[in-house]
Amino acid sequence: MEIELLVYYFLFLILGAGLSAFLNGYLNNTFNLNKMYDPVVERSSHKDKATRSGGLALFLTFCICYGIGKALGVMSMNLYALIAFCFVALIGVGDDLFTIKYREKFFVQVFAGVVLLQSRVYINNFHGIFGIYEIPYWASAVITLYVFVVIVNSLNLIDGIDGLAALLCIKFFVVVGAILAVSSKEMELVVPSIIGALIGFLIYNMNPHKKVFLGDTGSLLLGSVMAFYVFYILDDRSSIITDSNISRPLLAVLLLIYPLADTLRAFIIRAYKKQSPFVADRVHLHHRLIDRGYSYQNTINIISLLVFLTSIITLIINQLIYY
Q: pTM for this one?
């Protein structure tokens, strides 16, 4: 059975990558023919023509892979979670094609979070943080909604240079895939589909002649899926193989350390300047590094190294203190 699952894992990885590469190329050509380019503004990191078609290609790839996996009976995910993902992706499509005010996007995100709560996968335990363990449902609902909105928007905010958000997402899903391998066999196959879709996206995202961006569709969709898996980890009814080595809240924070830390840093800087926390500017770490003369690749390397070192040092300290 394990060998069969491994075969399916690689099949959906290849299927996701192939579909994503095809759809990214097709949608990029379609957007270009209709002159639907991503506008170049002061805070943009690109100067040439690019399209926000990557997120739509990612969403379609996910839908097709899930449909095939469901038909074969090897892939499954809670229906309410899928509906929530679709709501978030659709508001992203609307924002990529038109201009949608943040209040409308925020309302849809909260609504999607409410739908996600119906999946019965949510933060119902603090696992000892502040001496708190199990919490009542009303507190679970409020905290889960808040964390959902934070995660979804934090990923959207770090999507500022080529490859950064996609590579951080791949890292996230590789770790989550390893955790799910021993806890949720059917849900695990969603992971290679998304990783493959991100690989297909990176082929065009890194291409200077046919460049595509995730746009809000991609970043919001990925953020919502990541939030669901974080809730699965923090839900005390799920079985997690890492329980004997690391606390669940610490694991969740380490999985999202850069998006959360960079978003918090940006919000603090904007608050200090008495600006709206949602204003578009260049205070994010990746913007600061680029403005100091680092190339896109070196910027990604520096951020990846910081994330790696932070995670390793935190894990070492955690082992020394608690084990």
A: 0.91
